């Protein structure tokens, strides 16, 4: 990792509402190498999407504002750019794929118009050139008879096809980084697998870096090299993908793993949700933000806010924000805990892990179709 | 689209028939008659009988209605019972163009004011501009036009002497300014609010975020992505609003002594001038129907999801 494509340091995004200041993203730091794929995982409202929008400076202001932090993209601080320079970045260097393809395309403009816009703006193509390129892009993302569908409107496409259009739009100017915010959440499982496959092929073909944002550990398993787990606006665990599934450390990550539904279970057992609600980000708990829901907590957890540190008994670079896993006063009371026993059956996880280890393209398909999104992890 | 338009135009026939039937029934259900207005001239029963016989009012109501419809289909809408030497079609032919001209000018001015104002106040939500436009809209809706008109006459005609206080003068421009502006204020007030509301609705949509994520300039985002979606509700109310304004408004025309259609809406009813009532409300129904048809056709152009077909 000589030069990072993206370096985010101490990013803090807040929303100033009538009820108070919402600490949506609090002190988030991470980096991304050229062509790398990073997963950001967490439940609704944990700050994943706000992080992504912050990177493009797309936080609606008011009420939102990035109050602190640096975002170095290709060595350039995005925070310090003026509006024109940020716009030159959006769509050209950093593109975004949004969650809901049903609402993310303009209903009154044709597909070709919406894709061409960026081409004409950033690459200075004329109508004919951008049209030609649009056909290529649509073919690239697997839209059949692209030439005929060029002048169709979004409502004439199915959900999966619309998401392909979104991907084509994001790819149009060969960006260095694509932020995919829950790109498959609104789609059914088979379409999910296809879309993930497309993203994966593209990242390999064009060496585009991806940040894949999802609440579904199954989705990131086969797709990413590293995973960051977010909770309550903070990153609570950082590890590479294999390590995270092999040796998860944070109790919240255990909770997420436990709430993955299992199709191979003999009996219909109830899903194991994480008890309680996500923290109120206007007045977050003073100690560890997961403490109110944590079954392994000690006194220290509610008194002190843990930092993100290297975990005990883990690979180098595997960091957690949990006193129980860090060296210190109580000497990491969770460091020795066998998480396999804690979360119960791990059969599915073993499968996922195997797929991560192999990482052939087919793995994505298997991983996603076996592991639908955990509804219990969602509020 | 042509087929659809023809079908809709054919549907006008039963619609207008029902409007005529209801108007006829209501007009005749109202107590009194066309002859009992003039208290000064004591009219004997025999005079009234003669008048009724002359204008066919002595026949049974169903027969009168049938006769009216039959004649109307042949372009004969009868003679006004108030202005007894004039055909209804002549009166409307003289008065409506004046109202229509005033109305078209007013609605164009209203659109020219309200759409930019609504867009700006949505973009600058909760700023001074927005509050200003809210004040304008609230005042424009809640202050009756005759109050505004009297103030306007007092200020601009009596004191400043910029514009004449009343009259039409064959459509002389200086006579037109005040009634046009006053008529426009009323319509633009609620058009501004609707534009603002639907802009705010559209600007929060996901596809606007997508457009911004492409790196488009804010002006481009607003014009190509927000405005077109936001205009759909505006067009919906613009149709009937136009229909109301171009068929004449009582107060403005009365205050400025404009010989338009507006006063006939009221006067014909007060005078129980049956042929006049029927013709005016038939015209009104026709204009409303055409306005609605235009709106429906405009939908098809603005929003590809609405296919004008069948």
Question: Would you give an account of this structure?
Answer:
The complex is a heterodimer of chains A (379) and B (310). In chain A, 50% of the residues are buried. By secondary structure, chain A is of the alpha/beta class. Chain A is globular and about 70 Å long. Chain A has 2 domains: 238 residues, P-loop containing nucleotide triphosphate hydrolases (Rossmann fold, 3-Layer(aba) Sandwich), CATH 3.40.50; 69 residues, no CATH class. In chain A, strand 7, helix 7 and strand 8 form a beta-alpha-beta unit. Chain B is mainly α. Chain B has a domain of 176 residues: MetI-like (MetI-like fold). Chain B is 74% helix and 0% strand. In chain B, helix 6 packs across helix 7 and helix 9 runs antiparallel to helix 12. The radius of gyration of chain B is 24 Å and the shape is globular. Chain B starts with a helix and ends in an 8-residue tail after the last helix. In chain B, 33% of the residues are buried. The model of chain B has no long low-confidence stretch (mean pLDDT 86). The chains are: A alpha/beta (379), B mainly alpha (310). Chains A and B meet through helix 2 and helix 3 of A and helix 8 and helix 9 of B.
Q: What is the structure about, briefly put?
A:
The complex is a heterodimer of chains A (379) and B (310). Chain A has 379 residues and is α/β, with parallel strands linked by helices.
């Amino acid at each position: 990792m000589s030069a990072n494509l993206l370096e985010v340091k101490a990013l803090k995004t807040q929303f100033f509402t009538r009820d108070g200041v919402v600490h949506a993203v609090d002190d988030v730091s991470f980096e991304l190498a050229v062509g790398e794929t990073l997963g950001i995982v967490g439940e609704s409202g944990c700050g994943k999407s706000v992080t992504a929008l912050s990177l493009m400076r797309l936080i609606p202001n008011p009420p939102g504002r990035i109050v602190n932090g640096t975002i170095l993209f290709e060595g350039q601080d995005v925070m310090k750019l003026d509006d024109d320079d940020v716009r030159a970045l959006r769509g050209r260097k950093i593109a975004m794929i949004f969650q809901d393809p049903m609402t993310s395309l303009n209903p009154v403009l044709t597909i070709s118009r919406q894709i061409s816009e960026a081409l004409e703006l950033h690459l200075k193509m004329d109508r004919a050139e951008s049209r030609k390129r649009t056909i290529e892009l649509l073919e690239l993302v697997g839209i059949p008879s692209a030439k005929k569908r060029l002048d169709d409107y979004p409502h004439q496409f199915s959900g999966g096809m619309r998401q392909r259009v979104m991907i084509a739009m994001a790819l149009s100017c060969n960006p260095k980084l694509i932020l995919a915010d829950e790109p498959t959440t609104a789609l059914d499982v088979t379409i999910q697998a296809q879309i993930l496959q497309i993203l994966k092929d593209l990242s390999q073909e064009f060496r585009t870096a991806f940040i894949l944002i999802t609440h579904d550990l199954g989705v990131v398993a086969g797709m990413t090299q590293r995973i960051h787990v977010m909770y309550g606006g903070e990153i609570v665990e950082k590890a590479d993908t294999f390590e995270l599934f092999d040796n998860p450390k944070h109790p919240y990550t255990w909770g997420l793993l436990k709430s993955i539904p299992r199709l191979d279970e003999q009996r219909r057992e109830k899903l194991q949700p994480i008890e309680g609600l996500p923290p109120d980000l206007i007045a977050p708990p003073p100690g560890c933000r997961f403490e109110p829901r944590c079954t392994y907590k000690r006194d220290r957890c509610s008194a002190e806010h843990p930092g993100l540190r290297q975990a005990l008994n883990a690979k180098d670079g595997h960091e957690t924000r949990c006193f129980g896993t860090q060296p210190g006063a109580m000497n990491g009371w969770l460091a020795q805990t066998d998480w396999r026993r804690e979360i119960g059956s791990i059969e599915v996880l073993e499968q996922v892990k195997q797929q991560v280890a192999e990482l052939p393209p087919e793995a994505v398909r298997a991983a996603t179709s076996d592991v639908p999104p955990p509804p219990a992890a969602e509020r | 689209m042509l087929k659809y338009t023809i079908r809709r135009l054919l549907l006008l026939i039963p619609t207008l028939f029902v409007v005529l039937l209801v108007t006829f029934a209501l007009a005749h259900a109202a107590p009194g008659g066309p002859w009992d207005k003039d208290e000064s001239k004591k009219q004997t029963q025999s005079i009234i009988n003669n008048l009724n016989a002359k204008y066919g009012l002595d026949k049974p109501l169903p027969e009168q209605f049938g006769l009216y419809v039959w004649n109307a289909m042949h372009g004969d809408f009868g003679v006004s019972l108030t202005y007894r030497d004039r055909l209804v079609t002549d009166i409307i032919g003289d008065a409506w163009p004046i109202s229509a001209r005033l109305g078209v000018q007013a609605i164009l001015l209203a659109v020219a004011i309200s759409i930019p104002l609504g867009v700006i106040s949505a973009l600058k939500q909760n700023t001074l501009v927005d509050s200003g436009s809210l004040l304008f809209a609230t005042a424009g809706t809640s202050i009756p036009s005759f109050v505004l008109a009297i103030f306007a006459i007092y200020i601009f005609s009596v004191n400043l002497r910029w514009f004449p206080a009343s009259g039409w003068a064959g459509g002389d421009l200086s006579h037109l300014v005040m009634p046009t502006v006053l008529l426009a204020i009323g319509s633009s007030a609620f058009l501004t609010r609707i534009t603002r509301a639907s802009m705010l609705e559209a600007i929060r949509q996901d596809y606007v975020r997508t457009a911004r994520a492409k790196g488009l300039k804010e002006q481009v985002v607003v014009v190509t992505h927000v405005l077109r979606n936001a205009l759909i509700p505006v067009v919906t109310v613009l149709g009937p609003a136009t229909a109301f304004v171009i068929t004449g408004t009582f107060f403005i025309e009365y205050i400025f002594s404009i010989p338009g259609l507006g006063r006939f809406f009221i006067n014909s009813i007060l005078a129980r001038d049956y042929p006049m009532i029927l013709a005016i409300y038939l015209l009104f129904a026709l204009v409303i129907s055409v306005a609605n048809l235009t709106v429906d056709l405009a939908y098809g152009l603005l929003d590809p999801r609405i296919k004008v077909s069948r």
